[in-house]
């Protein structure tokens, strides 16, 4: 496998970038697979200079795709976060941005046929808990089309739209059973409508809420405070000890500045996102729409939530069965884009290299 290279496609999915593999092209044993991916991506090294990772959590991601094992899905999607500067590969969360590339990848690899100008791919997200999503991919002329005029905040260039529709969930979106908790002396709302997120008011952290990511990352006191909240919230959300986990995310909320619904800054969990993740945005939107949370603006909202972030605005449509702390997600939808960057073989560094 190492001598001959490993088949790999790199796509920009949403506002992230990742390496996409068929499960059959990787070792079946998770330990061997993760060791291989560290060597492919170039970890542990903050620059990932000896691999194809981009030296940032948003560009050090992996999607593993396979024919689905259930009847109501076409493919299974396993997301793996490869930590740039540590020898860690984690499946503790999924990634809604890389999800945007799963449909095109599945069609490119022949797992799903083209059915017209638009082809539907039914995707089963397998981690952290199985869930379904439907992706509508533009396929005019019998092939995936990446060029288009949809401009997505967080990416510099337009591309073809990909519609992602998420069904509802049986579990309440507030995993602690409360709309407001207090962790490390700070009021928060814990919400999970697809991604475990802790919402915190910017003012409660001594922030304006519109600070650039590098300013937030350079504030050691803030980072310590955020991590203290995250560790306590993780236990309360049933995630256990999250010190070495990428979830929950911390999303700082404040009033909108540019005509949106809410302003956000998201720790993922130690770097600050240049935009906001897909499922993180859905979770934040659920918190915004539910009265009584730290993110609710104090006035009724419609289904469309415009989430402002450092590089633009992310629109999320969310249908909720509002019932206080037992509120449930009925349906959500977003529009993303993706673009194929390369398709070929990748060679990992040797196993003997420390």
TrEMBL record:
Keywords: Isomerase. InterPro entries: OMA_tautomer-like, PrpF-like. GO terms for molecular function: isomerase activity. Pfam families: PrpF (PF04303). Signal peptide: none annotated. Gene3D superfamilies: Diaminopimelate Epimerase, Chain A, domain 1 (3.10.310.10). SUPFAM superfamilies: Diaminopimelate epimerase-like (SSF54506). Belongs to the PrpF family. This is 4-oxalomesaconate tautomerase.
């Amino acid at each position: 496998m190492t001598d001959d290279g490993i088949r790999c496609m790199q796509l920009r999915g949403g506002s992230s970038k990742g390496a996409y593999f068929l499960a059959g092209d990787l070792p079946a044993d998770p330990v061997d697979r993760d060791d291989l991916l560290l060597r492919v991506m170039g970890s542990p090294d903050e620059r990932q200079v000896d691999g194809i990772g981009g030296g940032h959590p948003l560009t050090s991601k992996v999607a593993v795709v396979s024919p689905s094992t259930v009847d109501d899905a076409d493919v299974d999607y396993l997301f793996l976060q490869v930590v740039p500067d540590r020898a860690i590969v984690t499946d503790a969360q999924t990634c809604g941005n890389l999800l945007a590339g799963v449909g095109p990848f599945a069609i490119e690899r022949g797992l799903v046929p083209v059915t017209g100008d638009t082809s539907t791919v039914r995707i089963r997200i397998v981690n952290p808990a199985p869930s379904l999503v439907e992706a509508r991919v533009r396929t005019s002329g019998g092939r995936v089309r990446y060029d288009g005029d949809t401009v997505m905040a967080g990416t510099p260039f337009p591309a073809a739209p990909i519609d992602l529709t998420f069904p509802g969930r049986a579990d309440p979106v507030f995993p602690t059973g409360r709309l407001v908790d207090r962790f490390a002396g700070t009021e928060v709302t814990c919400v999970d409508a697809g991604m475990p997120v802790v919402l915190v008011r910017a003012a409660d952290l001594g922030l304006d809420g519109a600070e650039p990511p590098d300013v937030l990352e350079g504030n050691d006191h803030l980072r310590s405070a955020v991590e203290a909240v995250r560790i306590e919230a993780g236990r309360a959300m049933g995630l256990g000890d999250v010190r070495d986990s990428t979830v929950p995310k911390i999303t700082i909320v404040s009033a909108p500045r540019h005509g949106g619904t809410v302003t956000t800054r998201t720790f993922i969990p130690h770097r600050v996102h240049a935009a906001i993740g897909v499922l993180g945005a859905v979770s934040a939107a659920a918190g915004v729409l539910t009265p009584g949370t730290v993110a609710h603006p104090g006035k009724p909202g419609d289904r469309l939530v415009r989430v402002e972030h450092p590089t633009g605005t992310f629109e999320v449509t969310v249908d909720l069965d509002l019932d206080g702390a037992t509120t449930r997600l009925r349906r959500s939808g977003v529009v993303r884009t993706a673009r194929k960057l390369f398709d070929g073989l990748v060679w990992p560094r040797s196993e003997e290299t420390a």
